[in-house]
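Please produce the structure of this protein holding nicotinamide-adenine-dinucleotide.
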Amino acid sequence: MLQIQNYLNGQLVPPLTSRYLDNVEPATGQVYGLIPDSGPDDVAAAVAAAEAALPAWRALSAEDRGRLLVRIADLIDANLERLAEAESRDNGKPLSLARVMDIPRAASNFHFFGTAAGHFATEAHVQDGVAVNYTVRHPVGVVGCISPWNLPLYLFTWKIAPALAVGCCVVAKPSEITPATAFLLSELCIEAGLPAGVLNIIHGNGPNCGQAIVEHPGIKAISFTGGTATGRHLARTAAPMFKKLSLELGGKNPNIIFADCDLATAVRTSIRSSFANQGQICLCGSRLFIERPIYEQFKAEFLQQLAEQRVGDPQEASTTQGALVSEAHLHKVLAYIELAKEEGGRLLAGGQRVQVPGRCAEGYFLAPTVFENLPFDCRTNQEEIFGPVVTLTPFDTEEEVLSMANSTDYGLSATLWTRDIQRAHRVAHALHSGIVWINTWLHRDLRTPFGGMKNSGVGREGGLEALRFFTEAQNVCVKL
Ligand code: NAD
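Below is the modeled complex.
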């Protein structure tokens, strides 16, 4: 039984509540570990530790802080296999995916921000012969980082690394559904020699532990990734306290395929963008709009490649689709499949639970599911499902597809496929999405702004945006 502990003031400790939650392995449906069910007292202790560590941490040079972060990155790399196994077991994702995506990206996050801090310059504004203004960027102080279950270590470190890099101390909470790699990270931080209290990882559920982080007056900024409803609740709590807020929320991303595209690449990539991580990536394209002349051909090739997907034990090398993250989430996605049928959807593939024999007989597996014949404005096409369920919709004109693509309350990412360079840019600029990929998907450069429009969030992560978020700008004006 894996018994997770909180990482508090440099030590691994049990929660002050002495309560634990069950940790379930999604591929087997069995409890395999215990997670601290921490409460406000644990959070208060973490904030006190972070406040005590803050003066020395912010006084270190960016280079010295960066050196420690790069050491953590190296330790993540050195423990790749162990971390990938833990991530796959905790989340249900294929081990092969955790090995090439989640864990290498977590190392990159520490490496990128560890080195970026040394290149983070402030601005100066000179009024000739009159005055010089320059901007000092102070670390905000103690900050809270709260992350979801879909890319556990990847998103957790994406927040923590820039905060630490600029000199903030952190109280962080991973999702209670996938806490294992955050716990292993605490061990690696101890091994790397990160000073006590600089990073505190407190485990627990949203209402008790997360809420206490958001409410604590000692926490000056919150970086949150999760659902839109949670983000709304969190903003309601934090805004009257004038905390800085970065919210990365849900999506319902369009994937637009024009008739002049490179069809083979568009189909192959669309299989990934629809079903990677069982469709549980906020950037997955769940609404596929296909220009009518190639609609039937795209559909045939898409369904043919879909048939090659293998739903099964996440540990098997041949598995491309693992388990959904929890029983509750499986039932939520199944309910959307029923809704899609009620709304008149024609089921082209999947639609049902998959029984995987052997140790995974009780696991939360779902066949990748494809519908067509659904209006663009029905609930299935408007609400975030966050599972392996996509819809295919034909379109005739650029105006029509833009109005359908932009019709949801969300605006996180969009993908479009065309060889017409002018159209590519024109359509990209007209899409209400914070991120647009042209002829590719999930191609990431950590320097670029990352985040969504509309109900997909507030603020941007990545590169300088993240470093700015965790700092307070102070302008100093000198009369000449
Ligand atoms: P969630 O909102 O249920 O939980 C996210 C985190 O918030 C968890 O750690 C949870 O414990 C915590 N939490 C819950 N209630 C809280 C409260 N009252 N106060 C403070 N913290 C609280 O989301 P989830 O189900 O874990 O993740 C799936 C969602 O995340 C999807 O909507 C997905 O689109 C979104 N997501 C967005 C991005 C992005 O970058 N925009 C990336 C990944 C996932």
